[in-house]
Amino acid sequence: xxxxxxxxxxxxxxxxxxxxxxxxxxxxxxxxxxxxxxxxxxxxxxxxxx
Length: 50
Hints:
It contains two helices and no strands. The protein has about 50 residues and is an all-alpha fold. It is elongated, with a radius of gyration of 14 Å. It starts with 5 loop residues before the first helix and ends with a helix. The mean pLDDT is about 85.
């Protein structure tokens, strides 16, 4: 599965999550990965500011 774009994230709704279990787990994993990447970027930005 490709990484989700900002546009795709904005379009997520209840219908999007009525996926089969395997696909839902894959999407959840991708969202988790995206969240970690964003946290790492934020931490780096904050460290650079100090």
